[in-house]
């Protein structure tokens, strides 16, 4: 190597070092940028992983809860089945099965041939329970009747389809003047024997014959499901004419949302009208009733896994106040 070549290398060496430094610096910056991008990706993946883990824990807890609900429902059904020797009987009716009913019928001496009224009286005794149990359940309606009696005491209260007179007993104890009407002579006679004013007749025919605005209010307790809907439709408008303005109409019936009740409905061959509370409410609104409320009553023996609370009550009551004019 000549002297000039050595001098050239010596003169250009700093410039090459500077170029190498810039290249290295650029590479370092690029590595830092890639590192930051990877770090951001890792953070996003960690966040997604945490979110997925939280969702997994939530689903695991929900699955465990649903499994527990299903186990509880299964145990409930097994317990209910073990208490029923005759398929379809209400869980509140505790006995030894169908043989006990045979003994009951013998003790009551109800073996007359062709007596439909007596058959339905005993069917009511079997399905609905004791008079004391029914009267206890009817206490739910008492405040509404007492309020009507306080405002319209000169008008009697009508128990439409009074049956054995359990609600009339309750009203009598609280000093409410009440009249019952029922077409079943056997049931009505029991109410008459208790000292109540009861008319043995078709309730709709009787009500049609009475003056408009005669009654302070009207109750139908486990009656509407026995009336075909076209006839019941007209009856609600009839109620609006016969109840004094401001008086209440109370319709207590089977809760169509309750699976316990679904199986019992066909046990009474006179059941023909099985509609939900909202339909009653709409019909009452059309007939001029206002301030309508829906009360759910008689909870089932144990809760189910179904989240709708309405399924956990066997009965429902629709209460509205007559606001038609001219009464």
Describe this structure in words.
The relative contact order is 0.09. The protein starts with a helix and ends in a 5-residue tail after the last strand. Helices cover 54% and strands 14% of the residues. The chain has helices at residues 3-82, 98-108, 116-128, 131-138, 142-151, 166-173, 185-193, 203-209, 229-242, 259-264, 277-286, and strands at residues 157-160, 178-182, 197-200, 217-221, 248-254, 289-299, 313-322. The protein is of the alpha/beta class. Strands 3-2-1-4-5-7-6 form a 7-stranded mixed β-sheet, with helices on both faces. The chain is built from 11 helices and 7 strands. The protein has 2 domains: 1-82; 129-322, Vaccinia Virus protein VP39 (Rossmann fold, 3-Layer(aba) Sandwich).
Index terms:
327 residues, alpha/beta, Rossmann fold, seven-stranded mixed beta sheet, 11 helices, 7 strands
Topology of this structure?
Elements lengths: L2 H80 L15 H11 L7 H13 L2 H8 L3 H10 L5 E4 L5 H8 L4 E5 L2 H9 L3 E4 L2 H7 L7 E5 L7 H14 L5 E7 L4 H6 L12 H10 L2 E11 L13 E10 L5
Parallel strand pairs: 1-2, 1-4, 2-3, 4-5
Antiparallel strand pairs: 5-7, 6-7
Helix pairs in contact: 4-6
């Amino acid at each position: 190597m000549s002297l000039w070549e050595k001098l050239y290398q010596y003169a250009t060496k700093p410039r090459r070092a500077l170029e190498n430094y810039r290249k290295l610096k650029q590479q370092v910056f690029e590595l830092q940028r890639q590192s930051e991008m990877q770090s951001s990706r890792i953070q996003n993946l960690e966040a997604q992983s945490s979110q997925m883990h939280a969702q997994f824990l939530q689903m695991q807890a929900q699955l465990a809860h649903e499994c527990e609900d299903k186990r509880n429902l299964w145990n409930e059904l097994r317990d209910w089945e073990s208490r029923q020797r005759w398929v379809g009987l209400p869980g509140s009716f505790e006995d030894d099965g169908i043989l006990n009913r045979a003994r009951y019928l013998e003790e009551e001496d109800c073996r007359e041939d062709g007596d439909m009224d007596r058959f339905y009286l005993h069917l009511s005794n079997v399905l609905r329970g004791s008079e004391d149990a029914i009267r206890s359940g009817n206490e739910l309606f008492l405040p509404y009747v007492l309020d009507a009696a306080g405002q319209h005491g000169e008008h009697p209260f009508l128990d439409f389809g009074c049956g054995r007179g359990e609600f009339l007993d309750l009203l009598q104890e609280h000093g409410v003047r009440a009249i019952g009407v029922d077409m079943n002579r056997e049931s009505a006679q029991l109410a008459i024997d208790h000292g109540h004013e009861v008319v043995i007749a078709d309730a709709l025919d009787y009500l049609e014959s009475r003056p408009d605005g005669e009654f302070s209010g009207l109750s139908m307790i486990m009656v509407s499901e026995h009336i075909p809907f076209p006839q019941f439709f007209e009856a609600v408008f009839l109620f609006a004419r016969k109840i004094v303005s401001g008086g209440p109409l109370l319709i207590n019936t089977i809760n169509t949302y309750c699976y316990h009740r679904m199986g019992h409905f066909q046990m009474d061959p006179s059941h023909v009208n099985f509609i939900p509370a909202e339909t009653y409410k709409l019909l009452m609104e059309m007939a001029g009733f206002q301030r309508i409320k829906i009360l759910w009553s008689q909870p089932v023996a144990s809760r189910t896994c179904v989240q709708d609370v309405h399924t956990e009550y066997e009965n429902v009551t629709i209460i509205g106040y007559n606001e038609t004019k001219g009464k």
